[in-house]
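Quick illustration, no need to memorize.
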Amino acid sequence: MPTKLQRLSTKFLKWRYKNISNKTFTQIMSVLVGLLAGLASVTLKNIVYFIEVSLKKGIFISNNGLYFILPIIGLTLVYLYVKYIHKEPLQHAVSSILFSLSKKKGVIKPNHIYTQLIAAPLTIGFGGSTGLLGPAVASGAAISSNIGRFFHINAKTRSLLIACASAGAIASIFQSPIAAIIFAVEVFSLDFTMLSMLPLLLASISGVLTSYFFLGNEVLFNFTLTQNFEVKDTFFYILLGIGTAFASIYFTRMYFRIQKLFAKLKSPKYKLLVGGLAIGIMLYFIPPLYGEGFSFINDLLHGDHIKALGKTPFDKYIENIWVVIALLFGITIFKAVAMTTTLAAGGAGGIFIPTMVMGSALGNVMAKIINHSGLGFSVSESNFTLIGMAGLIAGVLHAPLTAIFLIAEITGGYELFVPLMITSSISYLITKNAIDYTIYTRELAQSGDLLTHNKDQSVLTLMKLDDVIEKDFKTVNPDMTLGDMLHKSVAKSARNIFPVVDKNQSLVGIVLLDDIREFMFDTSLYETTKVETFMHNAPEHIFHGKDSMQKVMDKFQNSGAWNLPVIKKGKYIGFVSKSKLLTAYRRELINFTR
């Protein structure tokens, strides 16, 4: 019997269908999910701030030595939460959203709403070197998905609202609504049309307003641009673009190498122990690796590299500018290591903000080298710090427009637009040529589950193999006589293909009706000739769970076949016909572009 809430929900939905158009309702929902995603972002920031302040005011952080144990404590708390409450492995925030969009029609489990609100603050508050943007986006996306399901919104609109939630989360964290919209378009491969632009804009504004309501005029980067772009510095910005490109390649490859190393440790306990100790050692020598690193960026922007570096074992040498440069370069190198180690050891967090930290350090390093090279050159260290961030974002995330507009909005103007374009475009072009996919998309691309701006590719990604498998084929076995095949299979089938399977249901070949047509009426062969006489190999095989729909299409194209058998875990399960595949493709294309 339906509950009171279900009855009220049904009445509301009936009223909505009669009085509010889908377009208007989508816009209303975009405002709602933007507000809620912004609220999730604010909540995350406040929880992390509370943990960090509590640790700093208490007995925990009195010297660098205690950095050894804090990451282990944080990772242990996350491990206990995941094992006993969440009860499933933590997934990379943005990658899991992309997978849900491509293969789950935008359906995300409700527990993902609060999991990131718990796991990410425990990770980052205790020293994990990751960022809050990914968890904020993931929490907002889960909120949006479940609201969409509650109001029976279709899969395509639900996907748009998930992108709106991500825009709301980013706009709330950075107070940069334009960059938030562009991020949703670049990373989630959203079509930038009037139909999608207005909901994204409304969600982005809602996220910013939420941030202002709870945090006032507080901004992440309290910085005012004092030096504008000068044409004479163009060459140095080109060099910065090249430098951030190589740093982006290093960042991405280091991520996958460390993940691969930790994959060899089968037990989560060993992972958190090894990871926690490794992070602790890095924090001891390089304290700015602690947590997200926004204070580090702010200190560099204000020209206070001593405060940015904090207390280190190298303090007595800190007056030497080349020691400072070496320490800042160490942050450039080890931020990627610390971030990946945190995630691989079982922590939660994102890669966006660590990318900014690494870029700010690299930009500052290059500016200091130029200024102290003795060649008479002088550039703005704060400008290079900002533009270094843009270069890393463009290279690591393959999102140059997001990088340009985010830094432009952070600076409160567009005076640095030209150098931002120079550095970001160079970094993106070099990195894109060296690495096809980002940390977000590599595994999805390899499994054929990645949505892209290519409509044909996206439609194939959205299709499911199970929807086009046909199972009304009569199977035969190799030892069956021709007579039995004719009476038990051919006479009872409307198909002209007969899969030949052994006793284990493994496909050993196929027989076409044309293969036996000239022998069908020769009764002398009925008992003396077996099916194995006529069978031959299929032109290709489709492997369920391994072949993407793009690969299935390629197999039809290359083989010239009209029907191909499907193998699942070594066993035959059915056929896919080219005609049904193309019909399903056309239907999905219509839904995708509607």
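The chain has 24 helices and six strands.
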